[in-house]
Amino acid sequence: MKDVAVLIGSGSIGQAIIRRVGADKHVVLADLRQEAADAAAKILENAGFKTSTIVVDISSRESILKLIEHAQKFGKIKNLVNAAGVSPSQAPVAAILKVDLYGTSVLLEEFGKVIAEGGSGVIISSQSGHRLGALTEDENYKLATSPTEELLELPFIKAITDTLKAYQYSKRCNGLRVMYEATAWGKRGATINAISPGIIITPLANDELHGPRKDGYLKMIEASPAKRAGTPDEVGDLAEFLMSSRGRFINGADFLIDGGTTASYWFGDLQYLKKTH
Ligand SMILES: NC(=O)c1ccc[n+]([C@@H]2O[C@H](COP(=O)([O-])OP(=O)(O)OC[C@H]3O[C@@H](n4cnc5c(N)ncnc54)[C@H](O)[C@@H]3O)[C@@H](O)[C@H]2O)c1
Q1: Catalytic pick among 102, 167, 180, 265
Q2: In the prediction, which pLDDT does 277 show?
Q3: 125 CA distance to ligand 1 centroid (A)?
Q4: Residue 109 burial (C-beta neighbours within 10 Å; 0-12, 13-18, 19+)
C-alpha cells in the first residue's frame, strides 16, 4: 500500500500539480473523459509515476464515492487536486453550476471525510470568482455553509441566467466552501486551499487566443500588469508549496495567481472590462 494522490481533471494545470506532489505515491487520474485520463497516464508513466485511471463525473455524488473507493484500494488518500471544470464558453448555465459549484462542493465534503492525517488538497478555482461584486453577508454564509444538496436551490443561484455569471458564482463559491470545509479537513490533520488562476496557457486557452475573440484577449493581456498569460507550471509551483510541509499553516485560503489582472480589473487599466465581464 502506498500513499495516494488523486487528480481530477487531467488537463495541463492538473498534470503540472500532480507531477510535483505525486512522486512515490500512487497517482489516480480521474476525468469525465477516459481519453483525457489515459493521455495523462501515458505522459506520467513515461516520467516514472505509478498511475491508474478512472472515469468520474464530479456532478454526481455516486461517481465521486466510486472514485474514493477506487483510490482507497491503493492506500491512504494523502492529496486531492481538483482541476476539473467547465468554462462559460463550454457549457450552459445548469451544467456550469452542477459541475463547478455543486460538484466541487461535494468533492470537498466527501474527500474531507477520508483525507489522511498530514494530507493536503487544492481546488483550482478562477480569477473569475474575484470579478463578482461583493455579495451580502447572508449570501456569503449560504454559499459557504448550505448543505450541498440545497446549494442549487438557493434563490439567488436559481436566478442566474448567463453562463459568465454562473461561472463567477461557482468560482466564488469554491473559495467560500474551501473556507467552510477547512475546519473539517483541519480536524483530520489536513489542509485544503483554493488557487484562482488568471489566463493560463492550456490547449483550451490557446484555442481562445487564436479564435474569434482573440483581439479582446490579447488587448486584456497586453494591458495587464504582467503583460502575458501564465503557465501551468507557475500554478504547479504555488500548489506544490501549499501542499508541502512548508504550507502546513495555510488552510482555508484562496490564492490569486493572475499576473495582477484582478487588481487592474478593479482599480487599474483593465477597468474597461467591468462593462462586459
Ligand atoms: N486555463 C485557464 O486559463 C484557467 C483559468 C482559470 C481557471 N481555470 C480552471 O482550471 C481548471 C482546469 O482548466 P484547464 O484549463 O486545465 O481545462 P481543461 O479543459 O484542459 O481541463 C479540464 C478537465 O476537466 C474535465 N471535466 C469536465 N467536466 C468534468 C466533470 N463533470 N467531471 C470530471 N471531469 C470533468 C475535462 O474532461 C477536462 O479534462 C478548471 O476548473 C478551470 O475553470 C483555468
Answers
A1: 167
A2: 65
A3: 10
A4: middle
